[in-house]
Amino acid sequence: MFPTTIAGSLPKPSWLAEPDKLWPQWRLTGPDLAAGKFDATLLALKLQEDAGIDIVTDGEQSRQHFVHGFLEFVDGIDFGKKVEMGIRNNRYKAMVPTVTGALKLRGRVHGAEARFARAHTTRKLKITMPGPMTIIDTIADAHYGDRVKMAFAFADLLNQEARALEADGVDAIQFDEPAFNVYMKDVSTWGVEALHRAIDGLKCRTAVHICYGYGIKANIDWKTTLGGEWRQYEDTFPALAASRLTEVSLECIHSKVPIELLALLKGKDVQIGVIDVATDAIETPEQVAATIEAALKHVAKERIIAGTNCGMAPMRRDIAAAKLVALGQGVALARKRFG
Fold first, then answer.
1. How many other C-beta atoms can be found within 10 angstroms of the C-beta atom of residue 192?
2. What are phi and psi of 321, to 5 degrees?
3. 3, 247 Cβ separation under 8 angstroms
4. pLDDT at res. 219
5. Is 64 helix (H, G, I), strand (E, B) or coil?
6. pLDDT in tens, 195-206
7. How many Cβ atoms from other residues are within 10 Å of residue 256's Cβ?
8. DSSP labels for 180-245?
9. C-alpha triplet 274, 177, 158: angle, nearest 5°
10. Of 17, 6, 14, 18, which is closest to residue 45 (Cα–Cα)?
11. Range 218-232 burial, b when 16+ CB lie within 10 A, else e
């Protein structure tokens, strides 16, 4: 009951990459970098196992960024042709590469780290990838001329890699779609269908993570504009409940999302964030258990998965480690109380 997991990412060791940054520069090169990524993956697995996490990830230790870690393996993208673009409906600006031709994978994307992680843990393994809508919101287009057409082209590539990940022994594949909280109408008109294209043919668990973003200043500032209640999910949950995805992941602790909206996800497993990634304060087991208790009023207990509000890539490593321990301890308390 209440299996534990994380949204996906963990901070990288300072010997591997710049600390406390969402988009860090690597501190190793060549064969040393390749070996360092595996070493960091092993540390991430150990950290999760020691904290009692049931469904572990590779911590995204081999990726510089959760979107561009996928794009780096795609032909048809010119990383030398970068333009400034507004991200998440102009919430912040970034220099992004440009799609200049037909998209095609040049090989495996996350195969090496997935197989390495699978070989070094007996626990269930989850691998995360960016969703189609979030990808096209993080890259410029000089080829397709149509956002939806480009999104489905990326969905085909995601499906190709997802099928290979399933063959690698991955138990769950999660697509990260923070853009679902920005372009709500697009979720029902084409966003869910793009995810269906990405999960086509899969037999493993499939999830979508749709939180309000990392604990970075641009996101924190944006949240202050959303009012006293964040009701965006009211528009998207019905479409997700009707989808073929196994699971929906979202934030709960210190969130202004009305908890009763979780009832709109009837029929889905719900990964609730019980760990806040926008603060360095360490949650107590009581706080974690209380968040689960609130969700229990609207989601059946066998449907609840306890996780983090979002990825922890930009956090200090010691704080992230302490939050993982809090997650494990808080869920243990909830199992005693509500089991």
1. 22
2. -65, -40
3. no
4. 63
5. coil
6. 999 999 999 999
7. 13
8. GGT-HHHIIIIIHHHHHHHHTT--SEEEEE--S--SSHHHHHHHTTS-SS--HHHHHHHHHHTSS-
9. 125
10. 6
11. bbeebeeeeeeebeb
